[in-house]
Amino acid sequence: MPTTTVPTSTELNQSDLNLANPFADAQETDQAKPVPVQPKNTSSIFIDPTSRPTMVGPDKILYDFNYGCRVELPTLAKGKKWKVRYTDMVTSNIIFEAESTGGSYQSTKLYFVPLKIEVWKNDEKVFTHELCLKDRLVQVQIPVGTLGDVIAWFPYVDLFQKKHGCKLVCTISELARPLFEGVYPNIEFASQETALPMQKDFYASYRLGLYFDDWNCRHQPVDFRYVGLHKTAAYILDVEPIELPPKLDIANAERAVKEPYVCIAVQSSTQCKYWNNPYGWHEIVKWLNEAGYRVLCIDREPVWGQSSSWNYIPNGAEDMTGAKPLLERAALLKHADFFIGLSSGLAWLAWAAGTPTVMISGFTHPNNEFQTPYRVFNHHTCNSCWNDPKQIFDHLDFMWCPRHKGTDRQFECTRLITVDHVKSLIRKIPSFTKKVSIEKDSIIKNSLKLQE
Fold first, then answer.
1. pLDDT by residue (tens digit) across 315-361?
2. Pick the catalytic residue: 16, 25, 135, 149?
3. Torsion of the alpha carbons at 345, 347, 350 and 356, rounded to the nearest 10
4. Which domains does the chain have, with CATH numbers?
5. Which DSSP letter does residue 385 get?
6. 149 in active site
């Protein structure tokens, strides 16, 4: 199939490659403009690649695919020149082409793109390399700090390794690592500290993240707000965006609570994520207690908030809060009849543990999270601001409500989610239906015995 050069008038050729040419006599083509070779790091939570490409080609050409496709060409004598070309092997588009006496080139697109590198020296082709990850040492970085993101993205890291057959190293939080390490022997797990000296050996590296202001789609091929929190990883890594939970190392976890129980998590990182109905949790916990359930609150903190806004463990719930190991939390969730929570990490953990999950959220659209038949969402209120590209989430504003902050409509997305709405979905959970049916039969039998 013949290749097609992308027209120079498109935005792609103006910004698709970062070119830094330190040589004064370098020739610039109309398909690229000189810019710094190392784009500004989007966040310190990632490890930067080595300053120069890690792979060595002929004629002292250096190349790799660490944080974009990088090529370094040595300086030629005056009157001689290099030509370098990047081609997308799937679309057959020539993404970039330039001539110079030497320099460093780095693609602007930093997610997985199947590129072919071609280099000419004085019009003679001296180097061709097609990206191929098979048996190569490859890194995928998952930023530390948030539980939900790690659980949402990890299944696509596994798909990526199996698709390419690479020697995959995944940098991941030490807190989340025990969840996966025992059940994913095909992946090497590393902390940022242990991965740092490995950077010189990586053939390719990719970064998973939520890029809120990536308007030119440099870090992600599609805005995560359109495809969902979890599936953005699939698009970054170019694997099938199917929804599947990760495996957790809890196959042999024994039941720790004898009585029927439900787990709940009521805390979150910002107030918009809470169930802001002032009577919501109180009524639900009371109702579950009356149905014969122990209600275990498994948040990290029993009280959380900022300034004048504080949220407390619901009355009637048992306090099992604390910084417990995640495997312990997952084991507890595995044996729960169901889980009730917010759009938060513990909801993702419950989903991964195979527990029926009732998720209460209004600031996110339902396609932002995993599919659950017990998703509580009110279409009659303002909603889904998180998935609106016009509203950039402010991580530092605990009271973030971009459309109605300071008005009587603030947080209406969950404040107007009723207790009856939540109950109606809980009643659809098979384990709850069975439990209530057993309780009714027991009451009837006891009544008959009293009559005798």
1. 999 999 999 999 999 999 999 999 999 999 999 999 999 999 999 99
2. 149
3. -170
4. 4-130 (no CATH), 137-237 (3.40.50), 261-440 (3.40.50.2000)
5. G
6. yes
